[in-house]
Amino acid sequence: MTEPAAQQSVFHGVSAATRAFVERNHRLHIGGDWHDAHDGARLEVFDPATGVAVASVPAAQASDVDRAVAAARDAFEDGEWAHMPPVARERLLLQLADAMEAHADELAEIESLDQGKAVGMARHLDLTMAVDFVRYMAGWATKIDGRTVTPSVPYLPDQTFTGWTRKEPVGVVGAIIPWNFPLLMAAWKIAPALATGCTVVLKPAEETPLTALRFAELIESVGTPAGVVNVVTGEGHAAGAALSGHPGVDKIAFTGSTEVGKRIGKAAVENMTRVSLELGGKSPVIVLDDMDPRAAAQGAAEAIFLNHGQVCTAGSRLYVSQRHYDDVVDGLAGIARGMRLGSGRDPEAQMGPLVSRAQQQRVTDYIASGREQGARIAAGGGAGEGGGYYVEPTILADTNHQMRVVREEIFGPVLTVMPYDDLDDAARLANDSPYGLGASVWSNDLSRVHRLIPKIRAGTVWVNCHNVLDPALPLGGFKQSGIGRELGREVVDLYTETKTVLMSV
Length: 505
Ligand code: NAP
Ligand code: MG
Prior knowledge:
This protein is α/β, with parallel strands linked by helices. The protein folds into two domains: 16-279 and 483-501, Aldehyde Dehydrogenase, Chain A, domain 1, CATH 3.40.605.10; 283-470, 3-Layer(aba) Sandwich (Aldehyde Dehydrogenase, Chain A, domain 2). It has helices at residues 5-10, 16-22, 62-77, 86-102, 104-115, 119-141, 182-196, 210-221, 236-244, 258-270, 293-305, 325-337, 357-372, 404-407, 423-431, 446-452, 490-494; strands at residues 28-30, 33-35, 42-47, 52-58, 148-149, 161-169, 172-176, 199-203, 229-231, 251-255, 274-278, 283-287, 315-321, 376-379, 394-397, 414-420, 435-436, 438-442, 460-463, 478-479, 482-483, 496-504. The strands form six sheets. The chain has a seven-stranded mixed sheet, sandwiched between helices. Helix 11 (293-305) links the parallel strand 12 (283-287) and strand 13 (315-321). NADP nicotinamide-adenine-dinucleotide phosphate binds next to helix 9 and helix 10.
């Protein structure tokens, strides 16, 4: 049997297992079973390198979300999961990490086909981080504890009391995630939920639903009881809104844009649902004048171009001391011009396509607005050729804080560059943004670095690196970049309620 050339080229170089998974009839995962959406509606899934539809998934509606929440509630309240001791949850998470590792190549290929990123990057960054994080959270399952206190209760001087706190699972978690690191984001929500004894309904981004469905299978394959993890694919305005406004959900864990995050926060508060929001960013990169301009250009290029700029902490505003400004811009322009665009399955390619046609359009519109507002295009500026969603790595020099390209999150491979005068000027410019997610400082002048760190209003400050994350270090935003901290010991607080017990003895 012959097949269309487009379909052949999409699957060129991927394993039979990956292809078989992608082409199967995808369904919602609810209560340990697989279901179509109530009304049979489906969404197409595209390969960003070619624009070819490779799969379709159910488009869940409110009634499907109701079923998933009910399944999660049942699993939370009785049965095996509710009675599982922490050590058994630890073992389950360790087995899950092993299963992810065993299927890491396949998961990386699925991610590449769905999201556009290079298979190598998906394998060595997304998968490695996801597996490590699941193991890190496995360790927490047995270490969640409260405090014991001896109360004084001064108005009852003749009585004796003892008091303590318990950390209890918050309950049913509604997780809503974006498309930039689909499997990793799913792991960031599901692993803490499992470690703390919660149950989950996950809604992946409509552009990238596939690895979440494969992840659900792996979660089940290690013996997780039915209903503990449910996956509803669908659109934000339908499935996402139904989940975030659902009275049966105890906590919403959201990662995505600030605009949608605000809407979700309002819907959650209506039911007093706990909510954590990991939102957008416009992270500054500050190069001090002791840096070698070539090394600075290399570091800044990595800070913006990782994952084609589709990173919440992408270093998208670069501030360079006047002294090295021209050299750093030239260095960056050379790096950007030398990058080869290509499919995520092309090992020679240095940058893949963006996630969707809409994102490609959004990013090229931003580049046009930068041009109109007077930015100098030092490199790139165009969309790539062919059917894929490519955008050239772009350096916008001589920008300023009145421009939209400096003020707004572009979420693509577009760097804005500006000079600054002194350290105070650099800190002022870095903070002149509604966002406060990440920032990096590049210098070996210790005392100036230490003076700068407390001045920067951001959840993470990197020094001589950028976008480097570790499971043990919290991640989250100041200002409009969010509420709450994921990763690290801080994440345990997001998935637990503290109960105070006071006993008269
Ligand atoms: P998005 O448009 O905000 O979407 C995120 C998720 O919310 C998707 O699953 C989306 O569904 C869903 N959604 C949309 N409208 C909704 C509604 N009314 N109610 C409930 N859910 C709704 O963000 P994105 O474009 O996918 O991702 C990019 C953004 O994520 C960037 O701003 C980036 O900075 C941020 N991000 C932040 C972090 C962090 O840790 N701080 C990490 C990664 C990404 P659909 O897919 O159907 O639209
Ligand atoms: Mg896709």
